Amino acid sequence: MPILNTAYAQLDLKRYPEQHNSPLQAFDAADEYLLKHLSELSLSGHSRCLILNDNFGALAISLAEHMQVHSSGDSFLAHQALRNNLDHNQRPADAVQILQSEQAFQGPYDCVLIRVPKTLALLEEQLIRLQSHISDRTIIVAAGMIKHLPRSAGDLLERYIGPVQASLAEKKARLLFVTPTNIAQAQSPYPSSYELDKPKISLRNHAGVFCREALDIGTRFLLPHLPSGLGHAHVADLGCGNGVMAIVCALENPEAQLLLVDESYMAVQSAQENWQQALGQRPVTIYAGDGLGAVQPQTLDVVLCNPPFHQQQVVGDFLARRMLQQSHRALKPGGQLWVVGNRHLGYHITLKRMFSKVEQVAANAKFVIFKASK
């Protein structure tokens, strides 16, 4: 794998989860450009630096020996990559202070480095929270590959922080230099909410949640087909988002025991609030994690899943296939995986390699639902 070689460090970085024989690497030209620019500034070793949305730890680990570094983002997988890469590069586990997206920033900061995320609502929420942790002397630079850097990202930076000056392009990457001005503290528009008709429930969605403004069409197609009559079954909602599938399943199966997991901290926060709103104090387990990796083998009766088709800005089915494998491992013999996906993704081929029986439950022009039995 390529080595990240900058003025700050030489690092051997790995993506997480690791994908064998993949050409993808754990840093890009935007990371290199950002670190190159920062090295040309006169920041002291006492400087306090906040890094937002560091995908695999390239920025945080590079700077960890040169200043006090806090790393914040909405991805458990990104934070796990950071931890793994600290260890892999013989850095102390506490060299970087990791902040989950629901945890407050700990400013004031001398420097803020921002990798512009795929979800601009997340960026907006981060900028609103950032306002009270910077001064007019704070160095603020956002970065991204040009193809993933929409004009609206610069608009958000100007609205909440101050004027933006774009750099020249370098290796198809661009920096946005932001000059903090005395902008009044904004009120966050998040979480937002929408209503579900059947069953009649309201769903809160924090800024990082996929399909925040309305129920995504894949889940909408799956909901009427969710299994009932499950008794005391142990059921997992894998990649739970705002928790809607688990909540609907729980309402249909009052004795079932539910586990909800997602890699987005804001999804987990949304799911916790929505569960309590819909089901009160009914026991449940909800956490941010690496899918079903922490679940004991052969302990689940049913897994419900609407897999993602991207990791950050990279589109692909690697994470989805990994979630199907985790489901097979976690299910008891005879257990069932209920999965919905776009027709063209061909999940039935992967499922038939792993499960003893795969049935098509329903299909429409865009989606197909499978029930795979172990």
TrEMBL record:
GO terms for cellular component: cytoplasm. It is found in: Cytoplasm. Residues 201-371 form the Methyltransferase small domain. It comes from the Bacteria. Pfam families: MTS, RLMG_N. Transmembrane segments: none annotated. Its EC number is 2.1.1.174. InterPro entries: DNA_methylase_N6_adenine_CS, RLMG, RlmG_N, RsmC/RlmG, SAM-dependent_MTases_sf, Small_mtfrase_dom. It is an enzyme of class 2 (transferase). It catalyses: guanosine(1835) in 23S rRNA + S-adenosyl-L-methionine = N(2)-methylguanosine(1835) in 23S rRNA + S-adenosyl-L-homocysteine + H(+). Coiled coil: none annotated. Residues 2-181 form the RlmG N-terminal domain. One of its GO terms (molecular function) is 23S rRNA (guanine(1835)-N(2))-methyltransferase activity. Keywords: Cytoplasm, Methyltransferase, rRNA processing, S-adenosyl-L-methionine, Transferase. Belongs to the methyltransferase superfamily. RlmG family. Specifically methylates the guanine in position 1835 (m2G1835) of 23S rRNA. This is Ribosomal RNA large subunit methyltransferase G. The lineage of its organism: Bacteria, Pseudomonadati, Pseudomonadota, Gammaproteobacteria, Pseudomonadales. The gene is rlmG.
